[in-house]
Recover the amino acids of this structure.
């Protein structure tokens, strides 16, 4: 028995309106580095479906930066902690954990020798801290600001210099090492969002919410010029900048939904990339960027990573994904496509072989997606916007919408495309894309399932009981009441042959019932420690997989019922959905907004 993670289809960087996202890349320019939730993601720039994650922070991570050596990463979180950990091998060995400041860490910078770190943010007593990466000992003072510090940069060659910028509209220039205050620079009239030294170490640039770009001498801190005074500049605040490898050009990303490349010497705009979002007047705001080798990437507020092509002044490709927690998940019958729905209602399809994600605007809901199921020809989703959306598998943008009177708690579909939807006190029957019948029930429904043959419906309830009904045409008739579960029924799944029913509850217990006799056939699948969110059977019906709020996934055997395979901490915070790709491969989705695939070796 064993399990190996095959792939991570990573989430997008988490972006907040009005706040810069400090992206980074490794020294070789192969991987992009960003954060989302409690995790740090290392993602291949050329092949974004290749990714690694770091999950050892206990609260939300806000920024991560590579050491110039490439052997370590420093990541900071919302409580002011900075962790320094290794990038070599799979162990991700912790080198140092330090409480840098009293509040959120907004940015981190390494010196050129990979020995010293400066972390800045929203501190209580101070807004920045300079320390040694090995021991955590102080190596100077970061002072001179009166408000939150948003950004920091260190000159990569001696003599070292550090620059910080914050909400007090100022830059503070420090000499090092040890770092000591030198002077305050007050050219910006609004928040300073990012500062960076040029690659050759001769200059540094700053950008801010005032839409201004200033260039300064890296050794003295004296202003050289204002780059943004040129024609065709940004019309909104600027959140990010990156230098080209030869230090002759700068890439900027702005709230005006554009990215621009500037010629430093000529003080002119070379390229303008219009990255506006067609469906929103603000999701196209550009809040972060990196420039490594031939990869110019600008981050949209929506989380889209736009790969920019200077030869066309357009994005050559866009890498997309979820930013918020995945709450629903399903796999197509041919196992080539995954569908996921998120907390904010966004629905995306994923290609199983490449990990490419595509947003499905027509299939998306106006609020949280409660559940997604597949019946072969259709994906069916239910959302908190009181609708059920039915998508054609062959054309996922071909969607029909059915309004439901009440909040859908759960949805299920049979092979003949009969759909059942459970609301608080009703069960609705949908056939041919229309609601054809409904049945009032005298208990509070929490989940529902219909067998593949379309002849039986199981309704899970808040009272820890499962009500099994026969379905004849559109009419439901009570058959059995199953009452062995220990908590509210949270997930139901019929065996492919339609006779057995797996029922998971809020206590983490799974019972398997014979729906023909009403008897319990398996009562010891009880190793989850919190609510069971999803149960699915393998195509043969020999195995079942379950995912829970406890972050664990279990694979169960119907033949050897005492045997199990455990995937501990498969996703941070919670598992939202699970499914089989084949008998030895499963896919999972969770609150970390990622989709993962796993290779199993059964007992």
């Amino acid at each position: 028995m064993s399990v190996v993670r095959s792939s991570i289809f990573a989430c997008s960087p988490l972006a907040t309106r009005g706040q810069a996202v400090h992206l980074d890349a490794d020294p070789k320019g192969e991987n992009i580095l960003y954060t989302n939730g409690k995790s740090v993601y290392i993602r291949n720039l050329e092949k974004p479906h290749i990714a690694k994650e770091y999950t050892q922070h206990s609260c939300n991570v806000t920024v991560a930066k590579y050491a110039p050596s490439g052997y370590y990463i420093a990541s900071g979180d919302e409580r002011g902690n900075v962790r320094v950990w290794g990038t070599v091998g799979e162990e991700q060995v912790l080198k140092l954990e330090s409480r840098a400041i009293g509040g959120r860490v907004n940015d981190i910078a390494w010196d050129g020798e990979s020995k010293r770190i400066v972390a800045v943010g929203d501190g209580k007593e101070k807004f920045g801290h300079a320390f040694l990466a090995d021991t955590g000992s102080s190596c100077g003072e970061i002072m001179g600001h009166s408000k939150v510090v948003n950004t920091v940069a260190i000159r990569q060659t001696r003599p070292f210099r550090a620059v910080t910028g914050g909400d007090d509209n100022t830059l503070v220039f420090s000499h090092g090492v040890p770092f000591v205050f030198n002077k305050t620079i007050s050219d910006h009239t609004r928040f300073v969002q990012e500062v960076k030294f040029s690659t050759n170490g001769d200059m540094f640039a700053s950008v801010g919410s005032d839409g201004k770009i200033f260039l300064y001498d890296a050794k003295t801190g004296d202003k050289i010029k204002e780059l943004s005074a040129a024609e065709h500049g940004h019309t909104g605040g600027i959140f990010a900048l990156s230098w080209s490898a030869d230090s002759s050009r700068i890439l900027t990303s702005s709230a005006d939904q554009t990215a621009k490349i500037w010629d430093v010497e000529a003080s002119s705009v070379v390229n303008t990339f219009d990255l506006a979002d067609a469906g929103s007047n603000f999701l196209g705001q550009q809040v972060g960027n990196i420039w490594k080798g031939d990869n110019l990437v600008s981050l949209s507020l929506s989380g889209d990573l736009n790969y920019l092509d200077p030869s066309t002044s357009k994005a050559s490709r866009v890498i997309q994904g979820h930013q918020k927690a995945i709450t629903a998940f399903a796999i197509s019958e041919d196992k080539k496509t995954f569908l996921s729905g998120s907390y904010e209602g966004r629905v995306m399809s994923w290609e199983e072989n490449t990990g490419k994600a595509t947003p499905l605007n027509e299939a998306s809901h106006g609020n949280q997606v409660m559940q997604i199921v597949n019946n072969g020809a259709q994906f069916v989703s239910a959302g908190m916007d009181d609708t059920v959306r039915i998508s054609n598998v062959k054309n996922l943008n071909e969607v029909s919408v059915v309004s439901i009177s009440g909040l859908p708690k759960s949805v299920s579909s049979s092979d003949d495309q009969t759909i059942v939807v459970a609301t608080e006190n009703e069960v609705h029957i949908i056939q041919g894309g229309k609601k054809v019948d409904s049945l009032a029930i005298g208990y509070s429904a929490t989940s529902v399932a219909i067998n593949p043959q379309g002849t039986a419906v199981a309704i899970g309830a808040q009272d820890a009981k499962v009500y099994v009904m026969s379905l004849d045409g559109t009419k439901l008739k009570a058959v059995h009441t199953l009452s062995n579960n220990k908590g509210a029924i949270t997930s139901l799944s019929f065996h492919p042959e339609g006779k057995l029913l797996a029922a998971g509850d809020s206590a983490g217990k799974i019972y398997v019932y014979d729906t023909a006799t009403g008897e319990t056939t398996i009562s010891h699948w009880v190793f989850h420690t919190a609510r069971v969110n999803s149960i699915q059977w393998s195509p043969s019906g020999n195995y079942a997989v379950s995912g829970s709020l406890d972050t664990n996934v279990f694979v169960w055997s119907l033949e050897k019922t005492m045997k199990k395979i455990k995937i501990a901490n498969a996703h941070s915070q919670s598992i939202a959905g699970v499914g089989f790709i084949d008998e030895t491969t499963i896919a999972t989705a969770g609150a970390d907004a990622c989709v993962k695939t796993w290779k199993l070796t059964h007992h």
